Each structure stands twice: as C-alpha cells, then as structure tokens.
DNA sequence: TTCGGCAACGGAAACGCTTCCGAAACGACC
DNA sequence: GGTCGTTTCGGAAGCGTTTCCGTTGCCGAA
C-alpha cells in the first residue's frame, strides 16, 4: 500500500474529485469559496489517495515557509541548550520547523550577518542570548522577516529575559544578610560577544548592594574573567592570594562558582565553613553540588519566546519586553562568616 | 547598497554575469561543464548581490533541499548538545541547513515516526544517540533519504560511536588497579528509550571486569536507576545502607557520579579518602569537580558523523561503523582503598 | 421578464530553479 | 582545408502549488 504512493499531486486529486486545481487547493487549505459538499469530497479523495502537499511547491507559489531560524552563540552550554529546548518545543508543537544556526566566534558571526544564510528560508528568526550590534541589526533587517530575542538583555525586538541586576541583588543580599562584609565578585564576560554590548547588570548589582550596605568597595576583590569554569578557578586563586581574602564569593554564573570551589577545595578550605560561594542560573549541577544560587527559569524563557513568536506570526499584538522572575535558592555553599 | 537586495533571483544573477540561467545554475552548484573563468564571474556576481538560491524552487525543479534533519532525544543535556554542536559545525560549513527535531518522550517519539514531519523536507536525517526500533526503521525508510547515526550504539545505518564496554573496562580496571575489591555499580538507563534497546556495554564491562579479577559478584552492590544526577544520589544512599558498603563506586555517567558524591559528602564521607568514585563521559563539570572519569570525544563524534554524511551525500563510499577511542582521565575522586 | 449581485468554480499565469538537448566554438589530427 | 570530438553554453520544458481574474449559475428584486 505505502509503496503505491508514488507521485500523486494535486492535479490527481482534483481530477479524481472532479474539480479544478484551484478548487482543490482551496478545499485543502480550508479557505472559503468552496461549497461544503465539494470540500468534503476533495478531502475524502485526498485522504483516500494519501496525498500530501509538496511544501516546496506550496511555498514557491506564495505560501509561508513554515520554518523559523534560531541563532545561538553556543549549543553545548546548558543555558543555551535549555533555552533552545524550550523554544523548539512550542515551535514544533505549532508545526513549525526549526533551522538551527550556531554562530560560533567572531569570525563566524561576521560571516553569518554578511551572508545571511537563512535568507529566504524562514518566516522569522529568533536570536537566543545573542546581543546584536547596530550594524548587525541593519543586516538582519533586510531579511525582511519577523525577529525576536530571548535570554539576552533587552533588545529592539520583542524579547524575553530576566533582570540581571535583580538577580545579582538577590545573590548579594543573601550574602549580606548572612553577615558577610568582605565579599568578592568573579565577573564573567563572554569573549565571543563584541565588547560594545554587555552592560552587565550582574556587576552593577554588586556595586549597588555594597553601596547600600555602606561597605566600601575594595577593587582587589573583583576579578573579571572570560566565561568558563576554569577561569573561575584561576580567579579564585587570585582572590585567595589577596592580603585580606574574602569571606564570601559572588560569581556571575554557576560554572564560574564551581571553578572557584575547586580551587578552594584543593587549597583545603571547607565550604561553607571557611568560605561561602554563590552563583547565578541554577545550572542542573548546582543542585548536585549543593551550590547556593539564584535560579532563572531558562526553558520557560524559551517557551515564552516561542509563544510570543507564534502570536506575532498570527498577526496579533504582543508585549515587547517580558521579564521573568528569578529566585534565590539556598543550598549548602553559603553560611554566616566564621565568627 | 544592501537594501536594494529585495528580490534577486537566479535570472538576475545570470543577467548580471552575462550568462544564461542554465550556466548560472551550473556554476552555482559547482557542476562541471562551466569554464573556470565563467564560474568565477558568476560566483562573484552572486556574492556581490548577496544572492542565495531558493531551496524550494531548487528542490521543486529536481535538485536537493540542502537541508538535513537531526533527531535528538534531548537537547539540554550536555552530551546531546555537544554532539549536535559538532554535527552542526561541519554541516553548516558545507552550507547545509540543519533542521532540529527534538523527540521528547515516548509519545512524541511515536508521533514523530508516525507523521514523519521531516518528510520531503530534507536530503538526509541523522539520528543522534537515539536507538531506533525495527518498526521505526521501516517508517524512516519510507522517507527515502540517507540516514546515519551518531553517539548511540551500532546501528543498521552508517554510524559513529564509542565502545561502551571498553570504556567501562577502563573505569573498572582503574579501580581494580588501585586495589579496590568491593566495587559498586550505579547503572543508568534512559527512561525515554524503549526497553528493547540498550544492551548496556557499560554494565557488561562491570561483570566482565569482576570475573576477570576473580572477584565474586555481589548483587547488592549494583543499583539501576533512571538517568539523572538525583537518581545517582538516591542510589548511593541505598549503597551506603548495605551491611558491607563498597570502597569504590563505578557510575555509568558523570552526572550520576556527581549525584553519588553529593550523598557521600552529606554523609560526611571524604572523597577519595573514604570512598572512590569514577564516572564516564568527561562532562565539563567533571573537570570542575575533580572527578575521575573516562573521556569520550563527544563533539568529535558529531563532527565525524557530519563528515560521513557529507561524503555519502557526495556519493562516495564510507566506513559503516566507526568507533572512536575513549580514555581514562585520572583526577581527584579516586585513590587506593583505605588500608 | 430582466438585471444586479453573489457564491462556487475554472483557466492560466506566476513562483525560481534544474536539466535535457541542441548549437556554437575551438582544437587536433589526417 | 575538412572532419570529428570536446567543451562550454543557451533555450525552454517542466516541477507542484497558489492566486488573480473571469465565468457560470442562481436567486431575489425591480
């Protein structure tokens, strides 16, 4: 049976149903202008012949592509993958296909915006945690498709994200509340992102929190590193070598925090007895390593972005900036400072 | 300049290059029968106009889609994401677009193979770490496209993977070499995969290693759990409650190992002084947590699969089963048993 | 009876490419 | 110089839909 499904096209269906192709097309697409009886007949014949439209021909002749491009700077890092997972789930539920574009590093990035490989291939593009510069926005613009963003900072496009400064404050306030006053910060930046962007709300939170608590800033307690756990380990080593080491460390991400912890453990320090460490994100391993952190709903951000896109595609209005809440998760890596 | 790029098609390119569409098409597709000079001119013009072929038209007219579907059971777990990352990188370098299909859970899985959403949309499908059953193979078959696999076990399709049993042996042999004789195993299975598959080489390795070492099997030392770190933690608790607890734990994955370690630490046990733990995979956090493990090159498997696919698509012959080597990575979670 | 209007439907022109087939150009070789 | 084989290239026929315009038939109103 299945093998006989050779090459039936709409013309065959139309003929078998005794109508013109125009009518067949309208019936199949549930457009109006077709008598109910006729529609049913066409549908029945189509089913009988197990006919499916050719997406290419359909698109060529004027329909949508039914595809959306997703641009991500990283795939194998949990945060990005989780975002993607959320997005994909709602898009595919809506029968949209997801075209994945991994833009890795500055060169690839340039190439992407230059060649616009997704051009003419999709109905929309969503940029995941991917700050786009001015010029890049212009380039994207000439694809002439809907654009939305997720997981990054606010953008000129409809977008969903968290408030980094709030998240940072939740972490810092927790440390402060426990009584810490010598708090270090390991700030992380993504070397793949152009410098122009990243006004780091997570850093601002640190400064603001100290100021509000009346604690003078000690520049030697903040270290900035490229993203990554190893970097976190190095940063911690640096911090440990300060004349007056901190009693707590605020890391911009859980991975960095984990790196810091490794250094601490190797140095024979106990956590949280000797030193408290807090991260941000609530990476799955945070739970496995008893790391106190600030959770952000990652998959949900992806899903939200997906729904947003769907309504835009349907021509509905949507919010422009949606911000999802973060939440302090207290686990075993933080405690009051030692007497 | 760029904004005038509204609707350029191959006819425009041909005209601008002073050739016919036939020639333009041949040049763009790197077919032969075109003078080198001509080809270069066409390519230059195309670049200049930032032209990209319409996949629909191309496909409709008989060419291929330039797209490949990637089917994954999970996205946000490191292993799968890394595989995907490797694959995507080589595919995109070859100017192939990647259509991502996340098949999540048994229901979704059924739906996927039933509806075959990728049908008529791609030139090939690669299944990532995704054992496919007999019936599913049949369904896939009637898509009539190339199929390859990566990151799973051997398959009826060309595929790349590691030897799970070898990997397991490397882990076990390390423990044995250190002098451990009471070794526990925490076996992990993926609840999303049908039971029929998964003949777990990682488990076989455990039994074989013990046998070869002349150590009698103690059933109470093996616990099987669903995949996931929390499960690992529970399993470890169970192991700890045994009358004669193990001196070392062999976990099927790093995540599971991490879960086990959390339980150990919470119980006040030190690693590796009181107990050794070894995992498999070399998840990035393994390095951050000083976990001894057996590394498998994940991204590389994805890349390999990609190259394999490319040559098949080019009509070349390739190996059917390629197996990549694994390697013991000794870090701080294993040591000789206490006295 | 005639006519305007409307719903249902058909003809045929795109849509943007690939590819078959034949023409032209160019050497090489007798 | 003529013949033949290669290359290189152009004309044009599809590929399977959608959609713009018409046409037809029918009903109610004038």
What's the structural blueprint in terms of helices and strands?
2 copies of one chain form a homodimer.
Chain A: H1 10-17, H2 21-28, H3 36-48, H4 55-60, E1 67-72, H5 78-93, E2 97-102, H6 105-115, E3 124-128, H7 134-141, E4 146-150, E5 159-162, H8 164-178, E6 183-189, H9 201-213, E7 222-226, H10 229-240, E8 248-251, H11 254-266, E9 276-278, H12 284-288, E10 293-295, H13 298-313, E11 321-324, E12 327-329
Parallel strand pairs in A: 1-2, 1-3, 3-4, 4-5, 5-11, 6-7, 6-8, 8-9
Antiparallel strand pairs in A: 10-12
Chain A binds a DNA duplex (30 and 30 nucleotides) through helix 2 and helix 4.
Brief rundown of the structure:
By secondary structure, chain A is α/β, with parallel strands linked by helices. Chain A contains 13 helices and 12 strands.
CATH homologous superfamily of the largest domain in chain A, by name?
Response regulator
Strand arrangement, major sheet of chain A: 2-1-3-4-5-11
Helix content of chain A: 40-55%
In angstroms, what is the radius of gyration of chain A? Answer: 26 Å
- Architecture of the largest domain in chain A in CATH? 3-Layer(aba) Sandwich
């Amino acid at each position: 049976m299945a093998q006989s499904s050779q090459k039936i096209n709409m013309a065959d269906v139309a003929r078998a149903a005794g109508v013109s192709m125009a009518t067949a097309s309208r019936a199949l697409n549930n457009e109006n202008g077709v008598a109910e009886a006729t529609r049913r007949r066409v549908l029945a014949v189509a089913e009988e012949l197990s006919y499916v439209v050719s997406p290419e021909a359909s698109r060529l002749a004027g329909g949508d592509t039914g595809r959306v491009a997703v641009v991500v700077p990283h795939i194998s890092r949990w945060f990005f993958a989780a975002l993607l997972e959320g997005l994909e789930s709602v898009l595919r539920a809506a029968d949209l296909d997801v075209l994945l574009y991994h833009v890795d590093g500055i060169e690839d990035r340039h190439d992407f915006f230059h060649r616009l490989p997704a051009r003419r291939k999709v109905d929309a593009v969503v940029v995941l945690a991917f700050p786009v510069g001015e010029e890049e926005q212009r380039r994207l613009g000439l694809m002439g498709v809907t654009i939305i963003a997720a997981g990054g900072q606010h953008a000129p496009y409809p977008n969903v994200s968290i408030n980094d400064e709030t998240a940072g404050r939740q972490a810092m306030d927790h440390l402060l509340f426990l009584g810490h006053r010598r708090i270090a910060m390991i700030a992380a930046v993504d070397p793949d992102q152009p410098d122009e962007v990243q006004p780091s709300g997570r850093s601002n939170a640190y400064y603001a929190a100290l100021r509000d608590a009346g604690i003078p800033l000690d520049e030697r307690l903040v270290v900035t590193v490229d993203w990554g756990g190893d970097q976190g380990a190095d940063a911690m080593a640096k911090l440990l070598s300060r004349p007056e080491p901190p009693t707590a460390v605020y890391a911009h991400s859980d991975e960095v925090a984990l790196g810091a912890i490794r250094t601490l453990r190797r140095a024979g320090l106990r956590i949280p007895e000797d030193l408290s460490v807090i991260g941000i994100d609530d990476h799955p391993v945070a739970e496995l390593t008893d790391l106190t952190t600030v959770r952000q709903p990652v998959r949900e951000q992806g899903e939200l972005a997906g729904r947003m896109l769907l309504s835009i595609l349907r021509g509905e209005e949507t919010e422009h900036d949606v911000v999802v809440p973060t939440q302090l998760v207290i686990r075993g890596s933080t405690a009051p400072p030692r007497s």
